[in-house]
Amino acid sequence: MRIDSATRDQLQAWEKELSAQYERICQHELNLDITRGKPSAVQLSLSDKLDGLLNGDYRAGDGTDTRNYGGLDGLICAREMGADILQVPTSEVIAGGNSSLTLMYHAVLTGYLFGFAGNTPWREMKEPKFLCPVPGYDRHFAICEQLGIGMVNVPMTATGPDMDAAEQLVKEDQEIIGMWCVPKFSNPTGVTYDEETVERLSRLGNIANPGFRIFWDNAYAIHDLGQQVNLPNIRTATVENGTVDSVLQFASTSKVTHAGSGVAFVSASPANLASLKEQMQAMTIGPDKVNQLRHSRLFPEFSMLKDHMKKHADILQPKFACVLKHLEDAFADSDLGKWETPKGGYFVSLDTRPGCAKAVVKLAADAGVKLTPAGATFPYGKDPEDCNIRIAPSFPPLEELDTAMSVFVLCVKLASVRNALQS
Where would one find coiled-coil regions in this protein (predicted)? Predict the structure, then answer.
């Protein structure tokens, strides 16, 4: 089906046929959900050995009684795990609670209220702004929106953010004081930044406001579906370019072990860590070290963690294959949509024809298939092209996902034809 070359008679015939199919599906009263990238129960069960693992032995290797207060940086063994995941020195890692999003919020709040490393607090600027590669992660945007930090869209490409645009914006506007990045298997496109992109990002600190910080959310650092995809090391690049203060990195075990009770990590330069810890000292007497110890005992070697992630990949691969097969079968020879083929992460992103995404999501919802709201992958929920839809394959059983995708591709076709008839 190619909309651009179709006659009006063809479009009307397709609309009638697709509408009939859609009405038959609506009669089935489906209740399927592919909204968020949550691990399935089968994936969560991979880490059930955490329960009772300590067996009454709460002493860490350095003698720390993990049941007690203290240890703002987290246990050494947990920090070593974070260092392995992010490929940074252990001395530059803090191990925290269960959520990297909490650490990101704390870091943005630190920059906003107090500034990093002696730089001007962002709240004292007339209009502080973040660069936001789009489509991107809605929870990143929510942090900025809540604090009143402006957001400037930067298009995503097949190799990462459009760096020509990013560099130009940073040069022209000294009130751009941050940038969100999901560098490996980006949410939602699945793209991994290439070497040139990482190198250029590492140099932004030389042309931006001194208080500028890149928030490097490496949520899917070890979430490869097959052969490992290598992400260039941003820390190495900043050391070479003299911009070590310009990047803060984040990761967690939220999609590695139990999603609601993992361990989160932040890595940064000594100056940035000092700024973070100055505020942390007023808000906590230390993280959940018992949980950190459980994780360290479950994965005493990084190789064991990587073997564990292969088990996740075995569960996820058929689900991603299901989504991609539906898209390929439905749209490969059409002009109805385009997408990347991710090699890891948790999402598949489809761009419909302009002006169709909201209609697709509504049609799917009315047929019993819940999708992430159209526009959620853009700041303020406003997709200027109304075309991007994020698909999350991980949570439902494969059979339910297959049914949901059958409904989804039908809704894309129907919305596209109706849109063309209205134009």
Answer: none
pLDDT tens for 223-236 read 999 999 999 999 99
* Count of CA atoms in the C-beta half-sphere (13 A) of 385: 14
Same structural domain, 132 and 268: yes
> What pLDDT is attached to residue 423?
84
Q: What gap in Å lies between CA 82 and CA 216, rounded to an integer?
A: 14
Same structural domain, 340 and 257 = no
What residues are paired with 409 via a beta bridge? none
Element (H, E) at 339: strand 337-339
41-96 pLDDT, tens digit each? 999 999 999 999 999 999 999 999 999 999 999 999 999 999 999 999 999 999 99
Dihedral angle computed from the Cα positions of residues 48, 54, 60 and 65, in that order, rounded to the nearest 10 degrees: 120
| Residues facing 294 on adjacent strands | none
Would 199 be classed as within a structural domain? yes
Contacts of 152 (CB under 8 A, 6+ apart): 129, 130, 131, 132, 169, 176
| Domain containing residue 108 | 60-300
The label of the residue with tokens 């990462």 reads 160
| CA–CA gap between residue 89 and residue 73 (Å, rounded) | 14
